[in-house]
Amino acid sequence: MLALDFSNFPILKTERLVLRPMTHEDAAALFELRTDPVINRYIDRLPTTEPEDALRFIEKIDKGIRDNHWLYWAITEAASQEDRLIGTICLWNFVPTDDKAELGYELSAARQGRGLMGEAVEAVLAYGFGTIGLSAVEAAVHPENAASVKVLERAGFTLAGTFEDTTLTGEVVEMLIFEKRP
């Protein structure tokens, strides 16, 4: 059984990326990300309408990390002097009795198609399987999100099933569930 302790938040580095905790300074970039219709077309969440929504979200994430509910990283480019958030990636919905978690992510539309998310996913999986001791990671994907399916398949995930999800608009969608084991 998992013993989750995120009090020493892990900063993960790859060849091109740094995955670090979000800060209040990320609010403007997070607001841009969460209001971009290209990024959000497959994500079922309440719309972000005010910059303060991004700050409240960062505070919610910080509390969840302190309470050991999830790990949520800001994705930044290592070569950039700005340290600007270009996306997010998380492990959440931990099931300690099954040593399992769910993976979630989003990336700026301008940065998509360059393999950056695949790089971030690999780093998070290595941490999840190696350091945390997960035995499985799942990801739920909208069936029309071909780019996300490709990211998961390249990372070694396989289709494990589907489930019906009712969106905020009341639409029923048959979501795809992908799974990876170490």
Question: What is shown here, in short?
Answer:
This protein has helices at 27-35, 37-40, 51-66, 116-132, 146-154; strands at residues 12-13, 17-21, 71-77, 87-95, 100-107, 136-141, 158-166, 172-180. It is α+β, with helices and mostly antiparallel strands and 182 residues long.
Structural class: alpha+beta
CATH class of one domain: Alpha Beta
Cross-sheet strand order for the largest sheet: 1-2-3-4-5-6-8-7
Q: Which parts are unreliable, with pLDDT below 50 for 5 consecutive residues or more?
A: none
Shape: globular
Task: Provide keyphrases for this structure.
182 residues; alpha+beta; Aminopeptidase; eight-stranded mixed beta sheet; globular
Structure commentary:
By secondary structure, this protein is α+β, with helices and mostly antiparallel strands. The chain has a domain at 12-134: Gcn5-related N-acetyltransferase (GNAT) (Aminopeptidase). The chain contains five helices and eight strands; from the N terminus they run ββαααβββαβαββ. The protein has helices at 27-35, 37-40, 51-66, 116-132, 146-154, and strands spanning 12-13, 17-21, 71-77, 87-95, 100-107, 136-141, 158-166, 172-180. The protein has an eight-stranded mixed β-sheet with strand order 1-2-3-4-5-6-8-7, with helices on both faces. Strand 7 and strand 8 (172-180) form a beta hairpin. Helix 1 crosses helix 3 (51-66). The longest helix is centred in the last third of the chain and has 17 residues, at 116-132.
Summarize the helices and strands and which ones pair or pack.
Blueprint: E1 12-13, E2 17-21, H1 27-35, H2 37-40, H3 51-66, E3 71-77, E4 87-95, E5 100-107, H4 116-132, E6 136-141, H5 146-154, E7 158-166, E8 172-180
Parallel strand pairs: 5-6
Antiparallel strand pairs: 1-2, 2-3, 3-4, 4-5, 6-8, 7-8
Helix pairs in contact: 1-3
